[in-house]
């Protein structure tokens, strides 16, 4: 009888609704980083959406946090197999940020301070499926978890929820981001276990 | 002369992948810095190994291990120089 033994005190998944295949439950919030943690002073923070024609929309921290924010409770699933259910965040919906943006593109590349990128289809950012989050569990988002602000796209594996986010580029064609170029799946649906290319 | 198919590279590739890659020298695509792979700064061990240039912090190599495959992404490296056994 198989007992999941890898890390973070996981429990068997059969008894837990909301847990995608191959995942185990954690109550911690493990930190994964592909590079040094950038420290971004709020007066130097900005978020910029660049369309496929090069048109830019930009928000500084004051403008961004003045936008309507939402409190959301979501399950998050990391491709390294931990899942965290019922995590609570506050952020600005991508619907709000993209409302004024004129685009015919179908794909986006998310950009972060420090150079990280990840690709997400535009439709996965719309209809209350994605936020730029700046509070976790009622507190300001810590740098280790992507603060000042990170992407939150809970229906995809968590590498798509880029930390230290600073921009979004709209693209006519899909292109791989940082991990996708190195073998991870272009889309990353945890319910289909789309971990690696070809899955 | 007709071009050869990829099988013709098999001998060379076998040579390449049986050497100790940490003894290989990389040249960073970002800044041109060259040193042994063993001197790269390693990050991100959970999703895959990310080797960053100690000089400019750009990513030089990424290695992702799937259950049945290994991906080696070298776009951050302009070349990899591998010592051959016995030389
Ligand atoms: Zn370099």
Automatic annotation (TrEMBL), chain A:
It holds the Pfam family Oxidored_molyb. Coiled coil: none annotated. Residues 35-179 form the Oxidoreductase molybdopterin-binding domain. InterPro entries: OxRdtase_Mopterin-bd_dom, OxRdtase_Mopterin-bd_sf. It comes from the Bacteria. Residues 1-21 are annotated as: Disordered. SUPFAM superfamilies: Oxidoreductase molybdopterin-binding domain (SSF56524). This is Molybdopterin-binding protein. It comes from Paractinoplanes durhamensis. The lineage of its organism: Bacteria, Bacillati, Actinomycetota, Actinomycetes, Micromonosporales.
From TrEMBL, chain B:
This is Uncharacterized protein. Pfam families: DUF6510. It comes from Paractinoplanes durhamensis.
């Amino acid at each position: 009888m198989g007992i999941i033994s890898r890390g973070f005190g996981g429990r068997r998944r059969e008894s837990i609704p909301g847990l995608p295949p191959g995942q185990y439950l954690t109550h911690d919030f493990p930190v994964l980083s592909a590079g040094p943690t950038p420290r971004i002073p709020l007066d130097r923070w900005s978020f910029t959406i660049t369309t496929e024609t090069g048109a830019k929309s930009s928000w500084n921290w004051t403008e961004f946090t003045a936008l309507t924010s939402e409190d959301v409770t979501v399950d998050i699933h990391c491709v390294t197999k931990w899942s965290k259910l019922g995590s609570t965040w506050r952020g600005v919906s991508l619907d709000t940020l993209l409302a004024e943006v004129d685009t015919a593109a179908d794909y986006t590349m998310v950009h972060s301070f420090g150079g990280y990128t990840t690709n997400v289809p535009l439709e996965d950012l719309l209809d209350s499926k994605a936020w730029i989050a700046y509070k976790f569990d009622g507190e300001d988002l810590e740098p280790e978890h992507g603060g000042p602000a990170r992407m939150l796209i809970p229906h995809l594996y968590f590498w798509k929820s880029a930390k230290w986010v600073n921009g979004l580029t709209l693209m006519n064609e899909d292109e791989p981001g940082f991990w996708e170029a190195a073998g991870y799946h272009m889309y990353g649906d945890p319910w289909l276990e789309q971990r690696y290319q070809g899955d | 002369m007709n071009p050869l198919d990829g099988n013709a590279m098999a001998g060379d590739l076998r040579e390449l992948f049986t050497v100790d890659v940490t003894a290989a020298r990389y040249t960073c695509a970002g800044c041109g810095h060259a040193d042994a792979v063993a001197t790269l700064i390693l990050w991100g061990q959970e999703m895959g190994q990310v080797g960053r240039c100690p000089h400019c912090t750009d990513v030089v190599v990424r290695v992702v291990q799937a259950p049945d495959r290994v991906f080696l992404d070298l776009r951050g490296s302009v070349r990899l120089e591998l010592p051959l056994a016995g030389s």
